[in-house]
Design the sequence.
């Protein structure tokens, strides 16, 4: 199994964790393509395969994702590292404290291993939010503090506002197609011992190779994603064909190679979302082997050539 400590914490997480935005989210097809039994099996196979942590958030399925995780884990809770998030809209001191109580209740636990502030709030000073986060650590309700979608200056401010805690992670979008963090966030976080938790690590299913020119997912979330629209889609599909070809040559799935490209680097862990047992198992099996330097280099070079146009309609 492959592990890494999150930042300066003693949270020793597997390089792959389980993302659970999918649980309870209609726009991912919850209640249509998959449901509670799939969630049970997704968690069970992930833990069986050695994954030791789950990422969720109070906003996922309006609290339903947390609730389901609490229910499914039951007594196993103590064996699993739970990372959840307070919504960016609850940035005021009392709101953070109240949000944490809600998450603890839904998760059926009395502590959260990693509590992340979900996205920047430009109206409430980060000092106020971080004071509340640190108070939760002092009360023993939160073990470690993380942020999400934070640019470098805000990570610095957040860290400065903490008296004795460390920001241990920044959860951001990172995959072979979305490489915006390469420039500033990645180098800063890695040099400051702040782990990168890569979300959407398989570009919301695009890097699995199952979507083609003739087959796109039909749920609303991805219909609105510029990656699934021209002029981006054709470029991405061409890259995915290369990824699929390279993966095939070494007897692996494109998903697994895309995940390895992320987790081979120290300081980066990834949280692919899964909707069923098969997906979860395939994702967990991205651990325990290594990619050839040559393949890594080729993917790196080719992915840099993709030029994403940010379409607004
Ligand atoms: N902090 C934030 O702001 C933020 C934002 C987004 C996500 N997240 C977190 O990151 C996690 C992952 O990101 P994400 O859900 O956006 O995208 P992702 O992990 O890149 O893609 C997940 C989707 O890909 C498909 N998939 C997954 N594994 C597969 C496999 N082995 N074979 C075939 N298809 C597979 C499934 O959808 P289909 O089967 O429908 O294709 C699944 O719902 C989330 O669950 C959440 O915990 C955080």
Sequence:
């Amino acid at each position: 199994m492959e592990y890494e400590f999150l930042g300066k914490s003693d949270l020793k997480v597997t390089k792959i964790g389980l993302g659970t935005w999918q649980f309870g989210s209609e726009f991912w097809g919850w209640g249509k393509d998959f449901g509670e039994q799939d969630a049970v099996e997704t968690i069970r196979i992930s833990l069986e395969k050695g994954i030791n942590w789950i990422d969720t958030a109070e906003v996922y399925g309006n609290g339903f994702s947390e609730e389901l995780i609490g229910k499914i884990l039951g007594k196993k809770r103590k064996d699993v590292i739970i990372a959840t998030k307070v919504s960016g809209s609850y940035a005021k001191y009392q709101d953070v404290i109240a949000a944490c109580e809600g998450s603890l209740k839904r998760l059926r636990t009395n502590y959260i291993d990693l509590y992340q502030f979900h996205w920047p709030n430009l109206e409430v000073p980060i000092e106020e939010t971080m004071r509340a986060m640190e108070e939760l650590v002092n009360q023993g309700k939160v073990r470690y503090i993380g942020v999400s979608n934070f640019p470098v200056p805000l990570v610095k401010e957040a860290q400065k506002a903490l008296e004795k805690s460390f920001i241990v992670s920044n959860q951001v979008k990172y995959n072979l197609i979305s490489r915006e963090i390469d420039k500033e966030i990645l180098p800063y976080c890695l040099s400051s011992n702040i782990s990168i938790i890569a979300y959407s690590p398989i570009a919301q299913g695009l890097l699995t190779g199952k979507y083609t020119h003739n087959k796109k997912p039909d749920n609303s979330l991805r219909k609105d994603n510029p990656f699934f629209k021209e002029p981006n889609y054709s470029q991405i599909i061409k890259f995915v064909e290369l990824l699929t070809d390279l993966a095939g040559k070494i007897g692996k799935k494109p998903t697994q190679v895309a995940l390895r490209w992320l987790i081979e680097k120290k300081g980066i862990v990834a949280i692919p979302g899964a909707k069923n047992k098969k997906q979860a198992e395939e994702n967990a099996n991205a651990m325990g082997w290594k990619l050839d330097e040559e393949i890594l280099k080729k993917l790196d070079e080719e992915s840099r050539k993709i030029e994403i146009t940010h379409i607004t309609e």
In short: The two ends are 45 Å apart (CA to CA). The CA atoms of residues 94 and 144 lie 19 Å apart. Strands lie at 3-5, 12-14, 18-19, 53-55, 81-86, 112-117, 142-148, 167-173, 195-199, 268-270. Residues 19-22, 28, 55, 118, 148-149, 171, 199-205, 208, 210, 217, 255, 271-275, 279, 282-283 surround NAP (CB under 6 Å).
